[in-house]
Amino acid sequence: MKIYTRTGDDGTTGLFGGGRVPKSHPLIAAYGTVDELNAWLGLARTQLLSEESDLETLLQRLQGMLFEVGADLATPLDSRARTVRIKADHIDSLEREIDRLEAQLPPLKTFILPGGAPAAATLHVARTVCRRAERLVVEALQQETLNPEVLRFLNRLSDLLFVLARWVNHRRGTAETPWMPEKHSTA
Fold this sequence. Notes:
Layout: E1 12-14, E2 20-22, H1 26-46, H2 53-74, H3 88-102, E3 112-113, H4 118-141, H5 148-172, E4 177-178
Helix pairs in contact: 1-2, 1-4, 3-5, 4-5
Family: Belongs to the Cob(I)alamin adenosyltransferase family.
Pfam families: Cob_adeno_trans (PF01923)
Keywords: ATP-binding, Cobalamin biosynthesis, Cytoplasm, Nucleotide-binding, Transferase
């Protein structure tokens, strides 16, 4: 199989279930951003320490789920094409991870600045890309009938990525930087 097909040279791309749409279509922006998010998780994996194999396994599993999100978005709901669909079970598994990891963290008492260890900072970037993907799915939903579980999945995944960033910093003994609003004079 060749990596290039030339079919997109006209500015369109094919959906899994058939049909073509412009590459500027909100649906393509949504699953393109999911792909970008997947790459950020891959970068975070390269920044893990050898003793963080449990996190490596989790991030790799999340990357697989993001391929499923992309396939779900790229396959119209009324398509006869067989594809994996995001289901409530996917969201439940994210919530279980959030609960498990949060139980190991000190309570959050203030907003924190994104940063810390390189892997944590990368996970914070991934969280913001996930939020952008979520917004783009909302936009695509205005034009397409999509699986509503995808939106819930991305919302919950961004929460998990925030908790993961905190967890990495906590595990490595890297202090979180609280956000302190500046006091501006009114004079």
